[in-house]
Amino acid sequence: MNVETMLVDDDGRPVRAGVKREIVHRSPHAAAGYWNDPEKTPEAFRDGWFHSGDLGVIAEDGYITVVDRKKDMIKTGGENVASREVEEVLYQHAAVAEVAVLGIPHPTWIEAVAAVVVPREGATVDSEDVVRFARARLAGYKTEKYVAVADMLPKNPSGKILKRELRSMYASLAD
To answer: How far from the centroid of its chain's Cα atoms is residue 83's Cα?
Structure first.
C-alpha cells in the first residue's frame, strides 16, 4: 500500500512489459538512505526511487517476476546470462545438492559462466556430465564453461550463498 513499483533501464527510464530490468520502488514511507553508509545511499536512492538491485520482468497484466540480482547477472561475449536461470536447471541434475552460478573473469568473453556444485550425499559429480546436462536444456552461451566441485558453499547466517566469496575463490578458474 502506498508504494509505486516499476522496472527501469540503466538510465532510470521505465521499460515496456516483457523486458528484463531493475525493479525500483518509491513511497512516502520509504527510508531516505542507508544508516551510516553515505557511500552506498546515492547508488541505491536515485531520483526519488529506491533501486532494489533485483532484476525482473513485468507482464502485460502488471505482475512482476523477479529473475535475478543485478550484481549476479553474467556478461559473457556480449550476452547477459541470469545466474538464477542456470542454477534452476542444474538443481534438476540428480547428483547436485547445491549450486551457485557466477561470472568469473575471462580474457576473451569478459566473464565466463561457472558453476560451483556440491554433490548430493553418496553421489559423484562429473563436470563434463553437468555441462552436457545444462547444454541439453539451455542455450550454448548460457551453459557453464567451468564446473568446480565443493564440499559446501559459503553462506551468511541467514543461509544466503555468498557469491562474492565464490567469485574471489574461483577467479582464476578460466586462467
So the answer is: 4
Q: How far apart are CA 88 and CA 115, in angstroms?
A: 12
Question: What whole-number distance in Å separates Cα of residue 88 and Cα of residue 38?
Answer: 36
CATH code assigned at 50 = 2.30.38.10
Residue 104: which domain range? 71-169
Residues 101 and 165 in one domain: yes
Convert the pLDDT of each residue in 112-153 to its tens digit: 999 999 999 999 999 999 999 999 999 999 999 999 999 999
Q: Report, as an integer, the average pLDDT of 20-42.
A: 90
User: How many C-alpha atoms does 112 have within 13 Å on its Cβ side?
Assistant: 17
| Residue 30 contacts residue 24 (beta carbons within 8 Å) | no
pLDDT given for residue 163 in this prediction: 95
Q: What is the CATH number of the domain that holds 161?
A: 3.30.300.30
Given the C-alpha cell 578460466, which residue does it identify?
Answer: 174
